Amino acid sequence: MNAALVIIGLATLGALALGLAAHRGVRMTLEQWTVAGRGFGGLLVFLLTAGEIYTTFTFLGGSGWAYGRGAPTFYILAYGSLAYFMSYWLLPPIWRYAKRERLLSQPHFFSHKYDSPWLGVLVAAVGVVALVPYLVLQFQGLGIIVSIASYGSISPTLAIWIGAATVTIYVMISGMHGVAWNAAVKDALILVVVVFLGIYLPVHYYGGIGAMFRAIDAAKPGFLVFKPSGQSILWFQSTVILTALGFFMWPHAFSAILTSKREQTFRRNAALLPLYQLILLFAFFCGFAAIMQVPGLTGTKADEALLRLSIQSFDPWFVGVIGAAGVMTALVPGSIILISAATLLANDVLRPLRPGLSDSAIGVTARALVPLIALLAVYFTLNNPPTLVALLLMGYAFVTQLFPALVCSLLPRNPITKYGAAAGIVVGVVVVAFVTETKIGFADMLPFLPARVGDVNVGFAALILNLVAALLVSWATRPAPIAAASSSS
Amino acid sequence: MRLARWLVALPFLGILIGTAFVNQVEPLVFGMPFVLAWIVGWVVVGAAAMAIVYALDPLNAVSEGEADGERQ
């Protein structure tokens, strides 16, 4: 037991206590557990919708990709901003409709809009499939933090088990209320830690940020720009479009939208959140600083870059503070993802299948599912997953397939029928799963296209096929002129 | 207002298309490789554009209670 682990342990206990305190006096109905009774004001909604910015994904994954890949990591800065710009027009109509119909979740939204419970079940299934890699990402991050901060005395496997158990207990006790308050603590802590590290490390080791980039450019020419092939400009463009469109398609992002008291909050946040996002730069700087100082971390080891460099640079107690910030960035989003996945399965898959169940039975089921989903994620985490960023991109490729059907449902006259929506989603998801599983690139499937097409993000290509399928099937299934069934926004 | 909305198209064009033409390290801007600084620049410009849109949008001018539209 060293000073670093003691501090990390205390921070975790503090988060549990805060989670308990936050829901005192609140009766935990399902609506309270998942969307906190729709009663959150501007600051908390800001923090929850900003949740994705400061997860382990950015803290370790963003710096890890800067370390291992270089320029491609810049996409992380671009997509969130573009998503927030779009949110000004995208989120208020979603929120209004959800509030009017008293909806609790994203599948709910689809099944109401398209008047099809089965579409809701499909959307819930896609959501759970996309959430699993995202949860694996958080557990993997927790494992890295705890095992490195223990200076090797806790094995990564044990660390993952500890992390998963903590998240599970925390979620079962506190629900969304506790998460929101911890989100505030987490953002404050990570802000201070990342900005400090992002400035201190380049200055300490290289004499400045500019000097650091010059040194990297001299040692690894071409590392700081997009490559001519592979992760090229075309990859950047298609990935940014895919992830920007998918940003608010995550089931938990959807829940975060529903926690708001007012729709104005979203419009104001659309200007503020992109700036908040710039803090990411400092995480990149940490990863770049590690390149010449802790060389030789390859593959998934690149995700350890920030922490390895921290250990080399600071006393154990400060490594503990960094580790505590890291644990919070995994604990809070991990909890949100777990709540989301459990609610999806109980409320949006089980309820339509067994309509007789009472609200309280659904609520109990949702909470009972939490440890099962956590176990599943632990299983995948222990079975050689890819890097943190690759995990998130996989989730995005799945979840963005919901975008065409969602946006079309917001139009005054929806061009897509429920069959079209389902067909599009199925085609998109199957293409992504097929390509991910077989690792066949588009260049192999379509050899007559120019080689550069192979750089296009898989999820983006699937999105195009998705849209084509949706429009074709809608055209074939559209009933005679009175087809205004779902345009009631 | 209508004009202001078009401002928001700028960061999309700048990031999605413009980046292809500035894929270079030099000159460093605030110490950052040029292509990174380019993306950062458009994020800042975009945020400013959103602030202008927010200020001009009549939806945000009404008092908070009314803006909810459907409050019971």
List keywords for this structure.
heterodimer; A: about 500 residues; mainly alpha; Sodium/glucose cotransporter; 21 helices; globular; disordered C terminus; B: about 70 residues; 4 helices
Care to describe what's here?
The complex is a heterodimer of chains A (489) and B (72). Helix content of chain A is 74%, strand content 0%. Chain A has 489 residues and is mainly α. Chain A has a single domain, classed as Up-down Bundle (Sodium/glucose cotransporter). In chain A, helix 7 (117-149) packs antiparallel against helix 15 (316-353) and helix 7 runs parallel beside helix 19 (418-438). Chain B is mostly helical and 72 residues long. Chain B has one domain. Helices cover 57% and strands 0% of the residues of chain B. Chain B is elongated and about 45 Å long. The chains are: A mainly alpha (489), B mainly alpha (72). Chains A and B meet through helix 5, helix 9, helix 10 and helix 12 of A and helix 2 and helix 3 of B.
Q: How would the blueprint of this fold be written?
A:
The complex is a heterodimer of chains A (489) and B (72).
Chain A: H1 3-22, H2 30-35, H3 42-49, H4 56-68, H5 75-100, H6 106-113, H7 117-149, H8 156-206, H9 209-219, H10 233-246, H11 251-258, H12 264-276, H13 280-293, H14 305-313, H15 316-353, H16 359-381, H17 388-399, H18 403-410, H19 418-438, H20 442-445, H21 458-477
Chain B: H1 2-7, H2 9-16, H3 34-56, H4 64-67
Helix pairs in contact in B: 2-3
